[in-house]
Automatic annotation (TrEMBL):
Localization, UniProt: Nucleus
Primary gene name: Epc1
Residues of the Enhancer of polycomb-like N-terminal domain: 10-97
GO biological process entries: regulation of transcription by RNA polymerase II
GO cellular component: NuA4 histone acetyltransferase complex; nucleus
Organism: Xiphorhynchus elegans
Name of this protein: Enhancer of polycomb homolog
């Protein structure tokens, strides 16, 4: 975020790209020790790559994802209690979504979660400790951006901030709100003129019929 802000500011000041004002790109690492354990060499191509079950709906996955610290905690907790990584993610997800600026209490956590009280207590204490060490308001990362109506009070990222100046998409034909209102007024005036002409036509037709009736009456008299 700060690198992007400095790069944008430098370009506005100097008018060109500076060598020391660039957005850093992470370098690719090699010779990672756990590569072989994640990607073993005896991989075989499966017979079917994509398996579709159109009539069964997948269960909704939690928004929270385990990190390395969570994985260590879950592996330790597995020795004493029955818990899976997905179950732990669902518990943390419900705790995070049930909390606002202040975290929920232990009693409220027992109402949110359906697991045993001992398991809830262990996960709750771990979650409270991790939430206090967290810099952000929530353990679930979220993109900070402005709302279209400007009602949001969050300070958005530079990349997601709305433009202060109004972009001009057309240079020759100006299509703004004033011209749109003029077109609406012209359409309303034309519609009114057509209605008046239609009424004049009906009036003249009635006058012609009245004249024919008057002549017919005079002839019969």
């Amino acid at each position: 975020e700060h690198h992007l802000q400095r790069a944008i500011s430098a370009q506005q000041v100097y008018g060109e790209k500076r060598d020391n004002m660039v957005i850093p790109v992470p370098e690719a690492e090699s010779n990672i020790a756990y590569y072989e354990s994640i990607y073993p060499g005896e991989y075989k191509m499966p017979k079917q790559l994509i398996h579709i079950q159109p009539f069964s709906l997948d269960a909704e996955q939690p928004d929270y994802d385990l990190d390395s610290e969570d994985e260590i905690f879950v592996n330790k907790l597995k020795k004493r209690m029955d818990i899976s990584p997905l179950q732990f993610e669902e518990m943390i997800d419900r705790l995070e979504k049930g909390s606002g600026q202040q975290p929920v209490s232990l009693q409220e956590a027992k109402l949110l979660l359906k697991e045993d009280d001992e398991l809830i207590r262990e996960v709750y204490e771990y979650w409270i400790k991790k939430r206090k060490n967290c810099r952000g308001p929530s353990l679930i990362p979220a993109v900070k951006q402005e709302k279209r109506d400007g009602s949001s009070t969050n300070d958005p990222y530079v990349a997601f901030r709305r433009r202060t100046e109004k972009m001009q998409t057309r240079k020759n034909r100006k299509n703004d709100e004033a011209s749109y209102e003029k077109m609406l007024k012209l359409r309303r005036d034309l519609s009114r003129a057509v209605t008046i002409l239609e009424m004049i036509k009906r009036r003249e037709k009635s006058k012609r019929e009245l004249l024919h009736l008057t002549l017919e009456i005079m002839e019969k008299r």
